[in-house]
């Protein structure tokens, strides 16, 4: 038996730093990742799909978002089991109980809206742990494991949340206890644990049967989320009493969120940065968080700004990484001698240079003014 394990679709997600039409394209890509599951299900022969929580970004969605999401699920073609998570819990305002959702829900979509066993077919069950609020007071997954028999039925746990060994805050009541999961696996009551919440693909523990699938489309930078954009194809051999499991990852995501650090100390370093950014493919589907360190003249800083302005227009977003950025700017001797100006204007430039070299409160503004002056003098964009 083979099925697809996915999670954290978070349909309706927005990212405030995306440029222009990048946000609509990003939203479309998130739905596109869902659509890709239909092709993948056919390619690998998947019997069904489980979505381990956070199908939607929140419960208050625009009607169009709900309708287009359900249409994408319809196209998957095999049963799709949705688990409410912390972003879209089964509370009083739940999207899953809204008139629009219930009226347009395709026949192949099943909401795991109660804790415990849901039969897929004879001999195969899902054990669901849906969220009813954003702050559960118990370990929802361990709760549904209690009393499960070891009776030869193949069972897949569908849960959402953080496993206790992965977080420092051990007192959080909603943490999923790894010991309880491994005990249920060891006695043969369950055979695979499909988790959501972590947006990066991850195996938990040593059994090879407990997995986070990650989000099928990237949601954060690669230093935070190293393995996004994937779906897991899970094989369980039902002919073997031990139900051996095989897990294969398949990439469906199209976007990249990258964190980059560069040292820029002269014009050559700026040129190298330009080359590296220029060679990156799929700029319209790439978000760069850029950290820069170094010491530059005003002229070189102006060249850097011109470079960054260009790529800010080409990438989906080029975001300053403030915590990793520290550039000192200092006018070099003779840097403004060839501007071809005299009189009052020359005296004003000399005053700006002196202010820029000082440690006073106005030094940063003076450096910015000098940089703008150079860019204007060279015919660059202001």
Automatic annotation (TrEMBL):
<dbReference type="InterPro" id="IPR014577">
    <property type="entry name" value="UCP033093_metalloPase"/>
</dbReference>
<feature type="domain" description="Calcineurin-like phosphoesterase">
    <location>
        <begin position="1"/>
        <end position="199"/>
    </location>
</feature>
<protein>
    <recommendedName>
        <fullName>Nuclease SbcCD subunit D</fullName>
    </recommendedName>
</protein>
<keyword id="KW-0378">Hydrolase</keyword>
<keyword id="KW-0269">Exonuclease</keyword>
<dbReference type="Pfam" id="PF00149">
    <property type="entry name" value="Metallophos"/>
</dbReference>
<dbReference type="InterPro" id="IPR041796">
    <property type="entry name" value="Mre11_N"/>
</dbReference>
<keyword id="KW-0540">Nuclease</keyword>
<dbReference type="InterPro" id="IPR029052">
    <property type="entry name" value="Metallo-depent_PP-like"/>
</dbReference>
<comment type="similarity">
    <text>Belongs to the SbcD family.</text>
</comment>
<dbReference type="GO" id="GO:0004527">
    <property type="term" value="F:exonuclease activity"/>
</dbReference>
<dbReference type="InterPro" id="IPR004843">
    <property type="entry name" value="Calcineurin-like_PHP"/>
</dbReference>
<dbReference type="InterPro" id="IPR050535">
    <property type="entry name" value="DNA_Repair-Maintenance_Comp"/>
</dbReference>
């Amino acid at each position: 038996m083979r099925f697809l394990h996915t999670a954290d679709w978070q349909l309706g997600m927005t990212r405030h730093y995306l440029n222009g039409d990048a946000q609509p394209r990003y939203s479309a890509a998130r739905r596109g990742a869902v659509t890709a599951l239909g092709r993948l299900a056919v390619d690998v022969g998947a019997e069904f799909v489980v979505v381990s929580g956070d199908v939607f970004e929140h419960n208050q969605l625009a009607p169009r978002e709900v309708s287009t999401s359900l249409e994408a699920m319809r196209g998957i073609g095999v049963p799709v089991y949705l688990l409410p998570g912390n972003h879209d819990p089964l509370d009083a305002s739940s999207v899953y109980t809204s008139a629009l959702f219930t009226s347009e829900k395709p026949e192949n979509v099943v909401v795991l809206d109660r804790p415990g066993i849901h039969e897929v077919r004879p001999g195969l069950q899902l054990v669901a742990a849906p969220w009813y609020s954003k702050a559960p007071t118990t370990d929802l997954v361990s709760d549904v494991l209690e009393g499960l028999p070891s009776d030869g039925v193949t069972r897949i746990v569908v849960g959402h949340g953080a496993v206790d060994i992965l977080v420092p805050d051990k007192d959080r009541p909603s943490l999923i206890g790894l010991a309880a999961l491994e005990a249920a696996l060891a006695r043969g009551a369950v055979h695979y644990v499909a988790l959501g919440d972590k947006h990066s693909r991850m195996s938990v523990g040593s059994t090879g049967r407990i997995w986070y699938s990650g989000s099928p489309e990237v949601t954060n930078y690669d230093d935070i989320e190293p393995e996004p954009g994937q779906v897991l194809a899970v094989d369980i051999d039902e002919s073997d009493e031990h139900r051996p499991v095989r897990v294969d990852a398949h990439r469906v995501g199209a976007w990249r969120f990258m964190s980059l650090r560069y040292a820029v100390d002269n014009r050559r370093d700026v040129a190298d940065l330009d080359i590296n950014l220029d060679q990156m493919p799929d700029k319209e589907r790439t978000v760069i968080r850029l950290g820069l360190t170094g010491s530059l003249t005003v002229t070189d800083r102006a060249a850097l700004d011109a470079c960054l302005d260009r790529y800010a227009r080409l990438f989906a977003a080029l975001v300053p990484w403030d915590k990793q950025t520290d550039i000192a700017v200092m006018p070099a001797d003779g840097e403004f001698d060839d501007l071809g100006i005299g009189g009052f204007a020359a005296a004003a430039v000399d005053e700006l240079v002196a202010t820029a070299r000082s440690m006073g409160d106005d030094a940063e503004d003076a450096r910015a003014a000098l940089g703008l002056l150079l860019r204007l003098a060279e015919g660059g964009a202001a």
